[in-house]
From TrEMBL:
Domain Acyl-CoA dehydrogenase/oxidase N-terminal: 7-120
Protein's name according to its UniProt entry: Acyl-CoA dehydrogenase
Subunit structure and binding partners: Homodimer.
Region forming the signal peptide: none
Organism in which the protein naturally occurs: Streptomyces showdoensis
SUPFAM superfamilies: Acyl-CoA dehydrogenase C-terminal domain-like (SSF47203), Acyl-CoA dehydrogenase NM domain-like (SSF56645)
Location of the Acyl-CoA dehydrogenase/oxidase C-terminal domain: 237-382
Amino acid sequence: MTEPTTSDVEQLRERVARFVRERVFPYETLLDAGGPEAARIRAELRERAREAGLWALPLPAELGGGGLSLTAYAALAEAEGASDHGPVALGSAPLLDVTMLARHGSPRVRADVLPLLVSGGLRTCYAMTEPDTPGTEPALTATRAERRPGGGWRVSGRKWFVSNAREADLMTVLVRTDGAPGDREGLSLLLVPTAAPGFTVVRELPVFGATGQYEIALDEVPVDEDHLVGPQGGALAVAGERLQLGRTLRALRWLGQAQRAFDLLCARAVERRGARGPLAGHQLVQRHVFEALLALRSARPLVHEAMALVAGGRDAHVEVGLAKTAAARALQDVADRAVQVFGAAGLGPDTPLPALLRTGRTARVLDGPDEMHITSVARRVLRDAGTPTALRPLPRAT
């Protein structure tokens, strides 16, 4: 697929938005509940996406995807991400894993795994954080991989807040192959089959009542030698690359959900009438509209700036930190204001607002809490504050 024109992208965006609005929104409650019925609906949505020519748009064309560049996909990601289930329904959910494994997977993994990921025949997830260990400090990783006498690895440890662990076929796990917890060296990434002996889903970890997060245990799980992702001891570089893209993609999708909440807020203000006319005539409601729009419009350029740098292979730590924090705050703020304007109706099951508000609040903790991004960005800015602009090095390629 050649790079589309601006007009082509706009048309694709509208088609994606219509698909998510008409086909995904009506099934969100059932999809949220999980189970066999959710699996059946997901399979049906995927088939409809293929029929509509919207399947796996940002994944490599040679593997069966749409071949869109990250820059072109960024224009669609908001529309697709207006529902948490949009990326899965449209086949773009494995973008992070496909990108990581295409760059850092072994020849066997690239040949055997990538086509199945793009077709939807395999599901993957990523396990980094451990119980009672700050997720912002990967050097404290205690999960260990030991060499097997006959080749390969045996992995032992625990991970938690692993998204979609129960449905995944393969899990990329951050492990320690050398050194002790606290050492930044000696961390590696292994692609672990979830059907292997010793792999256990310990429990589900509902987030504000929502499903999808799990704690897992690994008890001497055997892993093949060629399932090492990147070089041994090179996990932090690979994970850092993945995190920059992942945080930016999630920020784009949070913008789509914030826009959805804003549209609901405005529709409610116009349609809801009281003794003194529509809510839209009340100044306090007008302020909610203004503040929500300000949050949304302020976050959007930050997110797209970050994506442009990430797509260009540039160092974007500052831009990604700003984008992730701004998008998470915008989603929480806009959803909260929409709930306020809806009143009691915004608290119940008849609107998506409780789910949008939940996502906005968790977004400020998961994938790096606000505090981590604030301090990381500030340190980088202050580090360069004494250097004249003309002498500062250009952002480095990741």
